């Protein structure tokens, strides 16, 4: 098979020439080849294998390019990288790898193309296109990757127990590719992942999170989370989620399985946002339900304060997975903490003051919160489904109306502390906070409009009640 059209970008001829200049053969390998055959659109990171030194080849390519781009060399890995137009091009020498028990970092020797293809994770990622002048565009596909692409199968080039045990990150990658490409992991591989699941412990958290994020950003993330659960990996990575599994029954009363519910919510939200953090919020919105679950004869199953407990768990989970503990984490916490608010609203009468409080508390994230809560509607009762969605329409409309009128989204107190101090000739004191709080409450309740004059009048009244003397 000839794939010349895959290599029509002039960069491939330039690499071909550079390889000839230094007397080595070179190939494009991996994701670029795979995605071209799948017609997934241009793959922007290009992997080049040199049968010889990848670093040398990178330097020669840079030399031959008109703008002589900078070459970044990673000596410890024997790789080099350069940027050409909008592409990251990585160069590596073909290698043969052998692994030890306790690390995913192999002992590396120089090798042939075949050696290099053997160390690749999946047959569909091991295909190479020749860049040599006499075989330019020829496909080298020793493991029938093309066939596996056709059959939508994830398969390892070697015995899966070797591939996965050598580098357990590949277990995550298998599931991630299955999710992104909507492929099936072949049975032998799936069993092997189950057998090797514990080895995920030697993988750094950062790399695991990279794969989790890619799963979350897929069109149907549940595919990946179901596979993580089935293979037993999820228990090691996100035990907070596996704890949500199962339905308990006491005295004939049951609750929904919050694990499957969560996955439905994540799939729902994937249709409405590309924001990975909002998708994280969907994934974690119910984690507080496991530790708060209780049964009482009077009210049946409850998950009292699960939103609060869940938001605290978000911090621990982010910390454990070495995820950023910055405003993104706080955003996820806030979404989890507020995740029931609009639902409660939509279940009965939507009052202006309830909407005003919602906007006040959610601030700039009120739209994200609405997206989360709409995704949270997974009831199988069509009547209820319709009712909730309709009520959310009302909530959204009210949000717009109330916000246009009262501007509480980025609430600034209409009367400042200084103004209160001046009005009553006060030093900093408790009364100032009390007056400010009472004014805010009056605005949120709708007793006064969010305007200076009304707030000032109320301030005078409140001061009087507190026994303060106005200065004028
Ligand atoms: P994508 O860029 O969409 O994540 P990709 O296949 O290009 O997909 P990369 O992580 O960019 O994945 O890796 C490039 C290539 O390197 C892969 O196609 C594969 O051949 C090889 N590779 C990457 N990681 C591993 C690994 N852990 N074990 C074996 N081979 C790997
Ligand atoms: Mg890639």
UniProtKB/TrEMBL annotation:
<keyword id="KW-0692">RNA repair</keyword>
<dbReference type="InterPro" id="IPR006674">
    <property type="entry name" value="HD_domain"/>
</dbReference>
<keyword id="KW-0460">Magnesium</keyword>
<keyword id="KW-0694">RNA-binding</keyword>
<dbReference type="InterPro" id="IPR032828">
    <property type="entry name" value="PolyA_RNA-bd"/>
</dbReference>
<dbReference type="InterPro" id="IPR002646">
    <property type="entry name" value="PolA_pol_head_dom"/>
</dbReference>
<dbReference type="GO" id="GO:0005524">
    <property type="term" value="F:ATP binding"/>
</dbReference>
<dbReference type="GO" id="GO:0008033">
    <property type="term" value="P:tRNA processing"/>
</dbReference>
<dbReference type="InterPro" id="IPR003607">
    <property type="entry name" value="HD/PDEase_dom"/>
</dbReference>
<dbReference type="Pfam" id="PF01743">
    <property type="entry name" value="PolyA_pol"/>
</dbReference>
<dbReference type="GO" id="GO:0046872">
    <property type="term" value="F:metal ion binding"/>
</dbReference>
<protein>
    <submittedName>
        <fullName>HD domain-containing protein</fullName>
    </submittedName>
</protein>
<comment type="similarity">
    <text>Belongs to the tRNA nucleotidyltransferase/poly(A) polymerase family.</text>
</comment>
<feature type="domain" description="tRNA nucleotidyltransferase/poly(A) polymerase RNA and SrmB- binding">
    <location>
        <begin position="182"/>
        <end position="243"/>
    </location>
</feature>
<dbReference type="InterPro" id="IPR006675">
    <property type="entry name" value="HDIG_dom"/>
</dbReference>
<feature type="domain" description="HD">
    <location>
        <begin position="259"/>
        <end position="353"/>
    </location>
</feature>
<keyword id="KW-0479">Metal-binding</keyword>
<dbReference type="Pfam" id="PF12627">
    <property type="entry name" value="PolyA_pol_RNAbd"/>
</dbReference>
<dbReference type="GO" id="GO:0003723">
    <property type="term" value="F:RNA binding"/>
</dbReference>
<feature type="domain" description="Poly A polymerase head">
    <location>
        <begin position="27"/>
        <end position="155"/>
    </location>
</feature>
<keyword id="KW-0547">Nucleotide-binding</keyword>
<dbReference type="InterPro" id="IPR043519">
    <property type="entry name" value="NT_sf"/>
</dbReference>
<dbReference type="GO" id="GO:0016779">
    <property type="term" value="F:nucleotidyltransferase activity"/>
</dbReference>
<keyword id="KW-0067">ATP-binding</keyword>
<dbReference type="InterPro" id="IPR050124">
    <property type="entry name" value="tRNA_CCA-adding_enzyme"/>
</dbReference>
<dbReference type="Pfam" id="PF01966">
    <property type="entry name" value="HD"/>
</dbReference>
<keyword id="KW-0548">Nucleotidyltransferase</keyword>
<dbReference type="GO" id="GO:0042245">
    <property type="term" value="P:RNA repair"/>
</dbReference>
<keyword id="KW-0808">Transferase</keyword>
<keyword id="KW-0819">tRNA processing</keyword>
